[in-house]
Amino acid sequence: MQNKRSSVIHKTVRRVKSIFGFRTRYLQLESRNELLEKKVNELSKGLNRLRYRHERQTSKAHERIGVLTDLLGELMYPDNVNKQFDTAQDKVWSTHHGFRYVTHHLGEDWKLTRIPYWEVILDNVPECHSILEFGCNIGSNLKAINLINPNYDLSGIEINPFAVDQVRKLPFVKAEEGSIVNHDMGDKYDFVFSRGVLIHINREDLPVVFDNMVKHSRKYIMLFENYNDEDEALDGYGKLVTGGESGESYQFWANYPKLFKSQHPDWELISSGVRTEKGRTPVKGDLYWAIFKAPEEQPSE
């Protein structure tokens, strides 16, 4: 009996020691966790300080690059700085912000970004031999098209003189300097398109641009622009392109196919999509393309 009681006591003592041992280890682990949490917080604060410094340095670098680009543009095209333009939008894209935009696109991997959707789009314009781009910038779209099919006759209209000089270096492109609002190429083309250009056009000039596209097109017109159900001006973009000046808007998202169709109801919408996805319904901000086919010519009596 005595032995049994002694055994029970020993077991109880061991359990108590075990409990105290677990508690001791728990407190030790808790202390370690507190130290680790403190170190993690210190590292997080350090990373935030480094991120802030990096962002400041990057911002300063961008500002300096922008200033240098502006100076370079003024040196290369001095007559363009004081030139009179019809709209504030034309001035922005032909001068300082236009030069910055060109330098931005000079570093673009256009094969990666543009060829995939052009392979989709070109399948929707059969019997097409000549192509005209409204607002061709440095020719990234035209280079992509030429790489897919070098048999196209390619041309472009561009308002920025620096961009025109760059695209004229491409032997397969005929580029002319001018505003897409009223520039006349003196010819018709099977396929006329804009990509990310109408969003920067003064709203009063947009109907005139549509008419000019129709004037130059023999078969097809494509609008490839940022979509929105309603015509909306992005005011923040105006601060970016003017350095803070107000009173004008410089980027507009809209349902451009709808606007075009309301002005030219005889043109048939034959295909549309979002980037590489043909038939996809766009949502706000999507780069949405829509291809229209010219009405059949009525036989003369």
Topology:
Elements lengths: L1 H75 L1 H4 L6 H7 L1 H11 L3 H13 L7 E5 L5 H9 L4 E6 L2 H7 L5 E5 L11 E7 L10 H11 E10 L5 E2 L1 H8 L9 E2 L2 H8 L4 E7 L2 E2 L8 E7 L8
Parallel strand pairs: 1-2, 1-4, 2-3, 4-5
Antiparallel strand pairs: 5-10, 6-7, 8-9, 8-10
Helix pairs in contact: 1-4, 5-6
Description:
This protein is an alpha/beta fold and 301 residues long. It folds into two domains: 1-76; 90-293, Rossmann fold, CATH 3.40.50. It has helices spanning 2-76, 78-81, 88-94, 96-106, 110-122, 140-148, 161-167, 206-216, 235-242, 256-263, and strands at residues 130-134, 153-158, 173-177, 189-195, 217-226, 232-233, 252-253, 268-274, 277-278, 287-293. It has an eight-stranded mixed β-sheet with strand order 3-2-1-4-5-10-8-9, sandwiched between helices. Strand 8 and strand 9 (277-278) form a beta hairpin. It is elongated.
Defining traits:
single chain; 301 residues; alpha/beta; Rossmann fold; two-stranded antiparallel ribbon; 10 helices; 10 strands
Please state roughly what percent of the residues sit in beta strands, choosing from under 5%, 5-15%, 15-25%, 25-35%, 35-45% or over 45%: 15-25%
How are the strands ordered across the major sheet?
3-2-1-4-5-10-8-9
Radius of gyration over all CA atoms, rounded: 31 Å
Instruction: Give the ordered list of helices and strands.
Output: HHHHHEHEHEEHEEHEHEEE
CATH topology of the largest domain: Rossmann fold
CATH architecture of the largest domain: 3-Layer(aba) Sandwich
Q: CATH superfamily of the largest domain, please?
A: Vaccinia Virus protein VP39
What would CATH call the class of the largest domain?
A: Alpha Beta
Number of domains: 2
Total number of β-strand segments? 10
Profile the largest sheet: 8 strands, mixed
Fraction in helix? 40-55%
Number of helices: 10
Shape: elongated
Mean pLDDT: 85
Low-confidence stretches: none
| Structural class by SSE content | alpha/beta
Distance between the termini: 128 Å
